[in-house]
Write a structure and sequence with these properties.
The complex is a heterodimer of chains A (about 375) and B (about 270). Chain A is mainly α. In chain A, strands 1-2 form a two-stranded antiparallel sheet. Chain B has a single domain, classed as Rossmann fold (3-Layer(aba) Sandwich). Helix content of chain B is about 35%, strand content about 25%. Chain B has ten helices and twelve strands. In chain B, the strands form three sheets. Chain B has a six-stranded mixed sheet with strand order 6-7-8-3-9-10, sandwiched between helices. A four-stranded antiparallel sheet of chain B has the order 2-1-4-5, with helices on one face. In chain B, strands 11-12 form a two-stranded antiparallel ribbon. In chain B, helix 4 crosses helix 5. The longest helix of chain B is centred in the middle third of the chain and has 18 residues. The termini of chain B are far apart. The relative contact order of chain B is 0.16. The chains are: A mainly alpha (about 375), B alpha/beta (about 270). The interface between A and B is large, with 34 and 42 residues.
């Protein structure tokens, strides 16, 4: 035992002598890179587990086989019970994937807004996207319109239009010449949210027998998820999240303040515009299909900060992965806890997420913002 | 080698001029000090030189090129800035803040290489800030932050450096360390340095030339001996200062006549 310790000590002394002094600063980066890889693995495991668990019990091995059999280059003989593949491929998997995508979008958008506004209280709904989507969705429920457009039902389509519309109004109100002052943007967003919120509230209480489905939508649910939803949402998510991840180093520099960021070569106005557009688009796409799920977008980025630090080059990818995992698990609880009744997933996120976050907050003593 | 020129530049906010008809230049290998009372517009000049604000009229030239035509990232590769005590994001470490100085050299898709880390570390060694590398900047003192910001400007590896009150929060020993370092880099590498300074004595000790700004205009420029004169100091800062020659190097030294104004007003009060 003793020899082991001394050996270890000489080894670390050797590496310290041979490595340049700055090498010590690579250690946290390496740790966080491993964390990203670990979370990728965790995401795959969580997807498999969440697909297996449900009202009809299916063994994990069968689930994995069914999913793998759909990959054309693998030849797997069907050994599972009939109907299993339909439950997995047509009901559970699209739901799990959509939950993952929506989670990833909300977590990324939340982290981006927090970074852009340098404000820990920012969430994806801060500047009016959620209330715009809600108003659109309520209109979709109440108006005597049916049908679909490009595979999008009336409610998601109206919600999407509402979300982008409110964002456009906030942007137009906050813009001053060529610049977009962040404080004005937040205040315009908060005021417009309040305005739209009161209209939504009034419409809800006067909506009669549709009240239940509206409220259920507003709290968020994945119960109607289909592959067509996934196909519609996926391009927004890939492009939006991809763009945001590209800008993670400039977002670090933005944490100084706008003037210093400009002096370090950042085109601040362009950065704000690109990131706002990307974050808003993925938020709008997410909430349009599943409702305004709360908590994920504000708290998961902070949980990531508590565990892995505030460096956006790692914070953003880790928020993507953690939020996806978190929302898949939340939806799993939502559909299994009181089965066959479903709890709105927006209730589950805070009910189970808040205690976990508070635990992290007490345990870690890190400066998080 | 970078030459900074201001030609008849007027600066201001919301079309209201703060400074007008400013003409001076900073040549490679020279330290130019900007002195003047509070609010005279020293920081405004630095903001204009980094294109945070555009001149209301006149031209700013970097190596003969109009500043307004140069891309922001290219400006940041030519001009490093040490701002006056900004708030720093407290969740970042000293090393991470200095590393941000490498941003102008990195494209959107690039990430920091070992060379960037090495340059960053060398900048921290030069400014004696290695001990702050792992500490969160939220817990550092004003003087420590000042040194980190100087390290960041050095990590930026620019041939011109603008400093806004670089010594304001430093003790007298660190003031000399910092200004010695800047002066040495200026001499050895031909840096062009423009520093806004409050301390007239440091300004005349370290600067090759001074520009004195007051009441919205260039009040005087030249060597410290030409600018720091009893007449100029009294006109710009008021009476009760004495200008002497430094006993060792003969440069001007300004001493405060403490309580002079108090006695004057007491005398007036007695008269009433």
């Amino acid at each position: 035992m003793k020899t082991d310790i001394s050996k270890e000590r000489t080894m670390s002394a050797e590496t310290a002598a041979s490595d340049p002094a700055w090498a010590a600063h690579l250690v946290p980066w390496r740790k966080r890179t491993y964390a990203v890889i670990g979370m990728c693995v965790a995401l795959v495991v969580v997807i498999a587990v969440a697909t297996t668990v449900g009202s009809v019990s299916i063994p994990l091995s069968a689930t994995v086989k069914v999913i793998l059999s759909k990959l054309s280059f693998l030849q797997i003989a069907p050994t599972w019970q009939s109907g299993t593949d339909i439950i997995i491929m047509e009901i559970r998997l699209p739901r799990v994937i959509l939950a993952g995508l929506v989670g990833a979008a909300l977590g990324t958008a939340g982290a981006t807004y927090q970074g852009l506004f340098r404000n820990p209280l920012a969430d994806p709904y801060l500047i009016g996207v959620a209330q715009g989507a809600s108003l659109g969705a309520v209109a979709g429920f109440l108006l005597p319109v049916t049908g679909s457009f490009l595979g999008m039902g009336v409610v998601p389509m109206f919600a999407f239009i509402g979300a982008l519309g409110s964002m456009a109004v906030v942007y137009a109100l906050a813009r001053q010449g060529k610049s977009l002052p962040v404080t004005t943007l937040i205040l315009a967003g908060v005021a417009l949210s309040a305005l739209l919120g009161s209209i939504v509230s009034y419409l809800i209480i006067s909506s009669g027998d549709k009240m239940h489905s509206i409220v259920f939508w507003l709290m968020g649910s994945f119960s109607l998820s289909r592959w067509s939803d996934v196909r519609l949402v996926l391009p927004y998510m890939v492009i939006g999240i991809g763009v945001i991840l590209l800008y993670s180093r400039p977002l670090n520099v933005m944490q100084l303040d706008e003037e210093q960021a400009q002096q370090l070569g950042i085109n601040v106005e362009r950065l704000k515009l690109v990131l706002l557009a990307a974050a808003t688009l993925i938020t709008a796409a997410a909430v349009s299909f599943v409702g305004t799920i709360g908590f994920v977008g504000i708290i998961i980025p902070h949980a990531v900060r508590l565990i892995w630090g505030a460096d956006y080059r790692f914070l953003l990818p880790l928020s993507v992965l953690s939020s996806a995992i978190f929302l898949i698990l939340a939806d799993l609880i939502a559909r299994t806890l009181l089965s066959p009744t479903e709890i709105p997933v927006g209730v589950v996120t805070a009910l189970f997420g808040a205690p976990f976050f508070l635990y992290l907050l007490r345990r870690r003593r890190r400066v998080i913002f | 080698m970078i030459k900074i020129e201001l030609e008849n530049v007027s600066l201001g906010y919301h079309h209201r001029p703060v400074l007008s008809n400013l003409t001076f230049r900073v040549m490679p290998g020279e330290v130019v000090g900007m002195i003047g009372p509070n609010g005279s517009g020293k920081s405004t000049v630095i903001r204009a030189l980094t294109r945070i604000i555009s001149p209301l009229s006149g031209k700013i030239l970097l190596n003969g090129r109009d500043l307004s035509m140069i891309d922001r990232q290219e400006i940041a590769r030519m001009l490093g800035v040490v701002p006056q005590l900004p708030l720093l994001p407290s969740a970042f470490t000293g090393f991470e803040v200095v590393l941000m100085g490498r941003n102008p050299h990195l494209g959107l898709f690039a990430h920091e290489t070992e060379t960037d880390l090495e340059i960053t570390w060398r900048a921290m060694e030069m400014t004696g800030t290695q001990a702050l590398a792992k500490r969160s900047v939220g817990e550092l003192s004003g003087g420590q932050i000042q040194c980190l910001l100087i390290a960041r400007a050095l990590a930026q590896q620019t041939e011109a450096v603008l400093l806004d009150e670089p010594t304001a929060n430093l003790d007298i020993g660190r003031q000399i360390d910092v200004l010695d370092l800047i002066k040495r880099l200026c001499r050895e590498q031909g840096l062009s340095v423009l520093a806004a300074l409050h301390d007239l004595n440091l300004a005349s000790q370290y600067c090759d030339r001074l520009v004195l700004i007051s009441e919205g205009r260039l009040y005087g420029r030249g060597t410290p001996v030409e600018v720091v004169t009893p007449e100029n100091i009294e006109a710009v800062y008021g009476a009760d200062h004495c200008v002497y020659s430094h006993p060792v190097n003969g440069l001007p030294v300004v001493l405060v006549n403490g309580g002079g104004r108090l006695k004057n007003s007491e005398a007036k009060g007695a008269g009433v």
